Amino acid sequence: MHCIKYCILFMMTTSSIFCFAQQETVLLPKQQHGYGFAHPYHSLNDSIIVVETGGACRGTRLTYIKRQHIQVYEQHIGTAQKEDFLNIHGNVLYNFNYRSYIDTPFQQTGMVQHTVQTFMDGDIAGKYPFRAVFTYRGSNSPYFSNASDISVQYRQSDMLEKVKYDLRKDADSSLDKGLLENPSKKYVLQQSGNPDSLGSITPFTKGLYREYDSLYAIYAQKRKELDSLEQRSGNKNLVQAIIEAREAKLYKQARSQADSIAQSKHIWDWSKLDGTTGKNKNASKLHPIDSTSGLQNNADSDEAKITKAQDSIYALKRQVVQDENKILLFQKKLTDSVSLVKRNINQLNNPQSVNDYIDKNDTTERSRLSGAQKFLLSVNQIGIGRSWINYSPLTVSNISLNGFNIEMNPGNLYVAAAVGSVNSQFRDFILNNNTAATQSVTLVRLGIGKINKNNWILTMYTGRKALLNTTGINDSAATQQVAGASISTTRVVNKNTSVSLEYARSSYEDAYAPGQLKGLAGRVLNFNMNVNAAWAVNFKSVYPLTNTKIDGGYRKMGEAFQSFTIYATNVKQDAYLFHVNQLLWKKKLTVDASVRKNDFNSPLTAPGYSNASVFTAVQVSLAMPRYPFVSIGYYPSSQLFTGSNNVVYQSWYNTLNAISSYSYKAASLNMTTSAVYTKFYNNQSDTAFSYYNAGSFSLTHSVNLSSFMLQGNLTVTDQALIHLVTMEPLVTYPYKRILTLTGGIKYSRLNHEQTLLGGTAGMSILINHFGTIQFNYDKVYLPSYNGNLLPVDLGRITYNREF
């Protein structure tokens, strides 16, 4: 025995954490001991727990903790799920297109194009989100370029959504079934010996469990008292017990009266009189006549006891119901409060608001941000490969970059950088691999302040740029070395209004000193020159009281100014845009209007483009419940066309467009009717497209039946040389979301003389664990430049798989 004691003492003095243990498993919360170790697990069932901490020998400290002071925690040893290092989901898309003939903006027969694209959204270790896109496009067209692109991007918005998702998950943890369990059901399970469910206790839920346990302890105590009282009353119906007691009382009263009559009879029986005393010999064995009053008192006493028990049970039942309602009210408040917390989390829209929320709220350790997450929350974006970058109106804006870019705003420091090749002619289907001009850009931005608030930002850029529209010309002289710098500031007037100002200077290789590259920086910094300067002002404002949004800007530049945003060359130009969006009639009517001049920046615009024309755009939309949606707009549109020098240009003209759509039910059938009218205000010199100065009206009506859908299309096109009517009935049949079949006939009538028939056919097949395959074929007749209808075969095969 002494050896055993010494062994136990040795183990206690040499272990860092030790306790006597039996049966039940618990977790010692660090608030109980505070010695630095995290959450040691112990098995115990003793009233006193001995915990040794601090190491061996003189550093050892013994702590005695009462059993009732230890909170029992659910244990997940060996069952905790570890986040995978890499989580990816997305889709794979393959698309095959065939056109037997095409004439806009160029002519070709038998054109084939293949496109393979993969979107992948993922995260690393469950914390660091990213997006990757892989694209390949190949074609037999001399105009369509074969291209392969890879893009890997980090976006601050994805990180914000990831952190907010974890915070919402923390909020949901307080709604675990241990807190929302019905108290009556929980009590029954406990009385039957079955353990009730216990949720995962975290710092976020600890106080909630404490409140729930307090309410439930009162409820359970009242339930026990009620059960005990009902058991003492024999588990009978108290009303029935009172009736039985009263029946017993009446029976005893009747019996007592009978005994009294018999007793009187015996008293006057002369044969039984005692000769000495003159009394009945059996009188001492008989109950006195007034003994019925004792029976009455006993019966009344039983009834009073039953009535008192009945009143006690009724009172306890009321208390039990009240205590149960308190728990249900607590659960309702908990549900509502968690919903409010989640709504507040959803409104967090920037890193600072997320950090403030985490600092002010007791979230779990799991969702607290790591150092890398805090750093990435200060990064607006990181792009590797093909990215779309947009920095400022006078430097680099809306271009496709193949390289690396980063933009970050930690605290009040703003830093951005970009380097790579530029595909400024982003409509690269008009370029092939042999004639595309090589362009590149390098950019650095430094600033103070927040990018979406008050700031000052210095931007410096350089690179090679195609100053002229040189499509089809593979010549190094087509590109020029460009350099420039700008200083910009953004001022937030109030939460609804902000203004941005920018001043920029630039130069290019052959502007004034041919061949002298070293003079680029000097000309940029030569403030005696104004022809290479530009400035711009932009603003936006929202007026909530009137539901009005206003934005716009003004830009002025000299003829020698160049950047990777503006494509005009050797043109002194001013441009402006003013835009208003107004909601009227309880937000049912939307009016959108703008006026603009020279605000169209396109690499396909004529190089000397400086237009005095002012384009006006107006769009009015009306959306009312149970009424058709109507939208009418008059706005600029663009069209590509090939000039006489085999150069592709982009022209601008106005377009009138009216749309109406209505979904309704008639004769228990769901129907949708849509009408579209379009009018082009352009001339034949503006485009090689046959529909110049043309009008088109389209009407579509669909009927959803129980097993298939019917659709009818009518299109009428009217132009100086062409009047075309096309009618097309379509039938679509879906089968269990696995197979969809579509078929129709196209009827075309040209200039009331020529009639031709075409058709359409399609099939979609969903194969489990493989994906969806779609086949489409169209036989159509399109008008050509000479006013005739030409047959065109259109085919498409699409494969899509989500993973």
Key traits:
11 helices, extended, alpha+beta, 23% helix, 26-stranded antiparallel beta barrel, 803 residues, 42% strand, two-stranded antiparallel sheet
Uncertain segments:
8-80, 283-292, 470-474, 513-517
> Helical percent range?
10-25%
What is the general shape? extended
How can the largest sheet be summarized? 26 strands, antiparallel, barrel
Number of helical elements: 11
Describe this structure in words.
This protein is an alpha+beta fold and 803 residues long. Helices cover 23% and strands 42% of the residues. The chain has eleven helices and 30 strands. The strands form three sheets. The protein has a 26-stranded antiparallel barrel. The protein has a two-stranded antiparallel ribbon with strand order 1-2. A hairpin with a 6-residue loop joins strand 20 (615-622) and strand 21. The longest helix has 55 residues, at 292-346. It is extended. It starts with a helix and ends with a strand.
Summarize the structure.
With 803 residues, the protein is α+β, with helices and mostly antiparallel strands.
Chart the SSEs and their pairings.
Blueprint: H1 2-14, E1 25-27, H2 30-33, E2 41-43, E3 48-53, E4 61-66, E5 86-102, E6 108-124, E7 128-139, E8 147-155, H3 156-173, H4 177-180, H5 183-191, H6 206-232, H7 238-267, H8 292-346, H9 351-360, H10 371-377, E9 379-389, E10 399-408, E11 413-422, E12 440-449, E13 455-466, E14 479-494, E15 497-508, H11 520-525, E16 533-543, E17 548-557, E18 573-584, E19 589-597, E20 615-622, E21 629-642, E22 648-666, E23 669-681, E24 695-704, E25 709-718, E26 723-735, E27 739-750, E28 754-767, E29 771-783, E30 789-802
Helix pairs in contact: 3-8, 6-8, 7-8
